[in-house]
Design a protein that fits this description.
single chain, alpha/beta, eight-stranded parallel sheet, five-stranded antiparallel sheet, 20 strands, globular, binds alpha-D-glucopyranose, binds calcium ion
Length: 558
């Protein structure tokens, strides 16, 4: 059992644009984050992952970077960043930066040079191809609709962009590109940051020979998954590890779209040659449709249990998991697995926080923030949702009203509405006009109210985090073995964690009805103590187990 601080941490993700606006321009900023560090300290987290704060024209809210060593104008200055970093460190909170190096902005100096002529010295920093029969070089689609290729009038060639056309893909096969990226990463490490979350890092190595991919029925282009886990990705990450990561005591997490267990064992191998851990997306893809994510199916509980259990057991002792359900690309989990009630938020949190891996809390999740009733497409800001709506309705592949209801359920904007601080105007997020609408339920769901209520979702998260980080159970919760119980049960998610002869039992009723079950023989005989319970009653555990709607408990058993 190799111990490490990043295994024992709880991470909190901040989406700076929507967290707290300190100067009334309607956009969250760095000083806004600094002003809320005491709130985060009280919650008990010890690492912040900040979505990108670098200079950016904001085609994709900062995931399109124009200068990696400068701060976005709307977010403040480098002095504000340094202040945030030192104030966080003063409170024992580490800062992990978002590293977006699969692509840059088309306004990055490298790209402006690269596109200026075919002979430019930086031409090969990006991926340029001739037209094929007067058309795109391949049939690959962009993750944000349309082709992944954009025609460039000036030099009469196409460039590759797996995201928006303002996010050209870097050419990682060019050693000069790797030098530039590693140099920039070193600069941030020298500044004293504590790690990197690596954006779509599984996509940096493009497939050999640029083959066309299959076009699924009902789609217009081949899936961008064609570029996941490419031929040189591990070689490049090992080089990054040798040249940068291994020199610092930092944490690294790779956002790995399309990662399989076998691939995850390479990206996050315990031998430490690549990254510390990965984000995998299988569990949040269980409710996707056949063609794309735009559907309203619900995740079946047995399928969810099987999937999470597979990751828990197969990575055990060989790699390390990230535990998450919410981030800036996902709808709110409480509206997805739960029923928007605080008790369902606590139930879902219990299931996640007692698993093995490093938990990530996404801003507002600790308050039970829900999906937002945006209504018309004009109220959305997210490029993915807006482009999909126009592309699919204009091609008559989807009916507008039906598609809009799916976007309401799955849009990334559900996670991006302003943080609900209190019941004053704009939820206390800004004194100006917020860049995106505030969820109208902020009078009922907000931090001020929850801080004053010992029974709130906030205080429940605080307790879960304390149990993991600072209790007699910490070692077991972080390092113990996981075992699933009742795999077929349609309502109850049950598992045990054990270490050195001590054993915890976690029971979560994922339904708004009473749930009954019988635990298998050999699990235990009696409850020794209760660590947490989101309901007033304590059920009879061994014998006639009955859990109240959304009830979740964790207890020590013998
Ligand atoms: C990642 C980010 C997402 C972004 C995309 C392109 O998936 O999490 O928000 O749009 O990469 O950078
Ligand atoms: Ca601001």
């Amino acid at each position: 059992m190799n111990k490490a601080w990043w295994k024992e941490s709880v991470v909190y993700q901040v989406y700076p644009r929507s967290f707290c606006d300190s100067n009334g321009d309607g956009v969250g900023d760095l000083n806004g984050i600094t002003g809320k560090l005491d709130y985060l300290k009280e919650l008990g987290i010890n690492v912040i992952w900040m979505s990108p704060v670098y200079k950016s024209p904001n085609d994709d809210n900062g995931y399109d970077i124009a200068d990696y060593q400068d701060i976005m104008d709307e977010f403040g200055t480098m002095e504000d960043f340094d202040h945030l970093l030192s104030e966080a460190h003063n409170r024992g909170i580490r800062i992990v930066m978002d590293l977006v190096v699969n692509h840059t902005s088309d306004e990055h100096a490298w790209f402006m040079e690269s596109r200026s002529s075919r002979e430019n010295d930086k031409r090969d920093y990006y991926i340029w191809r001739e037209a094929k029969d007067g058309k795109e070089p391949t049939n690959w689609g962009s993750c944000f609709s349309g082709s992944a290729w954009e025609w460039d009038e000036k030099t009469q060639m196409y460039y590759l962009h797996f995201f928006s056309k303002k996010q050209p893909d870097l050419n990682w096969d060019n050693p000069r590109v790797r030098d530039e990226v590693f140099h920039m990463m070193t600069w941030w490490c020298e500044k004293g940051i504590d790690g990197f979350r690596m954006d779509v890092i599984s996509m940096i190595s493009k497939p050999d020979g640029f083959p066309d991919g299959p076009i699924p029925e009902g789609a217009l282009y081949a899936d961008s998954a064609i570029t996941c886990n490419g031929p040189h990705v591990h070689e490049y990450l090992q080089e990054m590890n040798r040249r940068v990561l291994s020199k610092y005591d930092i944490m690294t997490v790779g956002e790995c779209a399309g990662v399989t267990i076998e691939e995850a064992k390479k990206y996050a191998n315990a031998d430490g040659t690549e990254l510390n851990m990965v984000f995998q997306f299988e569990h949040v893809g269980l409710d996707a449709g056949e063609v794309d994510k735009w559907c309203k199916d619900k995740i079946s509980l047995p399928a969810l249990k099987a999937n999470l259990t597979k990751w828990q057991t197969e990575l055990n002792d060989v790699a390390w998991n990230s535990l998450f359900f919410c981030n800036h690309d996902q709808p709110r989990v409480i509206s997805r697995l739960g029923d928007d009630s605080p008790v369902s938020a606590k139930c879902i949190a219990t299931m996640i926080h007692f698993m093995k891996g490093t938990p990530y809390v996404y801003q507002g999740e600790e308050l039970g923030m829900t999906n937002c009733p945006f209504g018309s497409i004009e109220n959305y800001r997210d490029i993915e949702s807006i482009n999909a709506y126009h592309e699919l309705t204009e091609a008559n592949l989807r009916e507008p009203k039906e598609l809009l209801s799916c976007i309401a359920y799955k849009s990334r904007d559900n996670a991006r509405t302003p943080m609900q601080w209190d019941d004053s105007e704009n939820a206390g997020f800004s004194t100006g006009t917020p860049w995106i609408m505030v969820n109208p339920n902020y009078k009922e769901i907000n931090a001020a109210k929850e801080l004053a209520d010992p029974d709130s979702v906030f205080h429940y998260y605080q307790k879960l985090i304390k149990l993991r980080r600072d209790s007699e159970w910490s070692e077991l919760i972080v390092y113990g073995d996981y075992e699933l119980l009742l795999p077929e049960d349609e309502q109850i998610f049950a598992y045990t964690r054990s270490l050195n002869g001590r054993r915890l039992l976690v029971l979560c009723n994922f339904s708004d009805r009473m749930a009954e079950a019988e635990l298998p023989d050999g699990v235990g005989e009696k409850v020794l103590s209760v660590l947490i319970n989101n309901t007033e009653e304590m059920p009879e555990v061994f014998g006639n187990l009955r859990l109240a709607p959304w009830q979740a408990i964790c207890c020590e058993i013998a």
